[in-house]
Amino acid sequence: xxxxxxxxxxxxxxxxxxxxxxxxxxxxxxxxxxxxxxxxxxxxxxxxxxxxxxxxxxxxxxxxxxxxxxxxxxxxxxxxxxxxxxxxxxxxxxxxxxxxxxxxxxxxxxxxxxxxxxxxxxxxxxxxxxxxxxxxxxxxxxxxxxxxxxxxxxxxxxxxxxxxxxxxxxxxxxxxxxxxxxxxxxxxxxxxxxxxxxxxxxxxxxxxxxxxxxxxxxxxxxxxxxxxxxxxxxxxxxxxxxxxxxxxxxxxxxxxxxxxxxxxxxxxxxxxxxxxxxxxxxxxxxxxxxxxxxxxxxxxxxxxxxxxxxxxxxxxxxxxxxxxxxxxxxxxxxxxxxxxxxxxxxxxxxxxxxxxxxxxxxxxxxxxxxxxxxxxxxxxxxxxxxxxxxxxxxxxxxxxxxxxxxxxxxxxxxxxxxxxxxxxxxxxxxxxxxxxxxxxxxxxxxxxxxxxxxxxxxxxxxxxxxxxxxxxxxxxxxxxxxxxxxxxxxxxxxxxxxxxxxxxxxxxxxxxxxxxxxxxxxxxxxxxxxxxxxxxxxxxxxxxxxxxxxxxxxxxxxxxxxxxxxxxxxxxxxxxxxxxxxxxxxxxxxxxxxxxxxxxxxxxxxxxxxxxxxxxxxxxxxxxxxxxxxxxxxxxxxxxxxxxxxxxxxxxxxxxxxxxx
Length: 661
Ligand code: 6R9
Prior knowledge:
The chain is α/β, with parallel strands linked by helices. The protein is built from 21 helices and 30 strands. A 7-stranded mixed β-sheet has the order 5-4-17-16-18-19-20, with helices on both faces. Strands 7-6-8-11-12 form a 5-stranded parallel β-sheet, with helices on both faces. Strand 4 and strand 5 form a beta hairpin. Bound molecules: ligand 6R9. CoA binds at residues 197-200, 318, 537.
């Protein structure tokens, strides 16, 4: 991160604006501390009280936290509930049926509004349709869709009938999709004919068909297709394929929810880890929804007249917690946006905030950095050209936000009056973990500040011992929390090893990030991943995943992938490749590099495409044959190697790998 050096000495402090605090749900540090104290005094009792106050339980729970099979923790065990009921019926019963649930804006700018009553109706009809196709409790349903009301309806409908959904981001390739469908064992896939992005029609259904041909067809019985563009060329297999509107058409508007146990898996979401195979992160219904709801109230301070906009895609955890579930569970009004921040120009976000009077805006540092750059190039797209007065709160998620981007966001988007919540969390944590509370916490650019009440975050050394403030270490969570990952689908051993490793004592949740707490304020700053996971534009990518993909190419003998700091994307992917034939040079090298980049694009998806490829006769290795990734990282940054390379088997190779082709 280019701002890292400043970040560590950052001492600017921004107090919560008085006007904000006055009305905020949590309005002072005193109140924050009292909430934390409540958990210290009575951990189970406090969670139990919040769970009862927040969610509708069909059958009440007795046990709060069951640690008998730790680290496979269970929360609210005997309770039964339903996520869809909590996100629609309960809101309508509270008198908000006519309130707008979703304001959808298409890529081209068409706007559709839908009330809670209408959302409920569409969820119920589609849920009944799914049941009619034989989908029921415990079945897995894969979604491969773009941003749409239908995407949210599909997720909610699965939840309503107790089917476990697994959303695969629409940018993943047929092969990635196939792997996920097979791993999760989905019998049904929901997709769209095509998606619209930046004025272009891009395929979805055709990619689903390709994934089925690759092998998934042995398990998939139904493919349900939302007609988005109506393109004539989209393949359709009668019998197996159904239009989404036909599935819902003759169904009743009433649909009795499937009352599931609190621990019933609401969804599985695949994310990258440090081995080649993505991990299917399992989330449980009760605890997950509780935290999605509470963080809407605590972190976003959501009030009934707010217009909330989270710009994430439903293919990522942020889109699950802060589009599909959180905002609906509190009866909020939210924007769902199909398009790109740069289409038709880089003023799109600001224009939409002005037109829809957005009051809470939640986006990623990558988006901010690219819009800063765009507004430098084309001043017409600068936020100062738009009326952004409706904004009262800004948020950031996905990667560290560098202080320069923070200051720009604060000044130019927030008009120096909106707090910024820099929310640190992960696919595995289900919701926010370390974040400012906008009405209480004094802000420091680049710091996610303090853990939310109930979250026992800490920094330890390699043996699990606490580190004093001011010294960096490994970020852990010392006690379970309701929305935590429950398991890795099909791989409980990997779950234990990845998240509750024995060297830390087996009872600390390992986030996979390094962090440091400020000696004076005890604020947390995340210093980046400590494993082989990269963060490119806020998307998690495993280096091993890309390496296995590269070596699967028939010309590649060996590959090593590292990250390099990048001003725009946070990190950029650099791949070192040894070909089976001779090392290419000049134009041949450029051609090969392009071919390999396209290969990764096709095999995994555009987000995994290396920015740069370098060819060597070999890779720098120790005498025991281990690739020295540390050195490759130095070379990727364009720096000279100052470390001792005497343990290298082949030091001469470094010279070859210094430059991009
Ligand atoms: C929600 C989400 C998780 C990883 C996480 C960390 C990085 C996320 C951050 C942040 C610094 C923040 N990360 N938020 N780093 N400050 N506010 O992004 O989930 O895709 O699973 O990524 O992202 O490295 O471990 P996910």
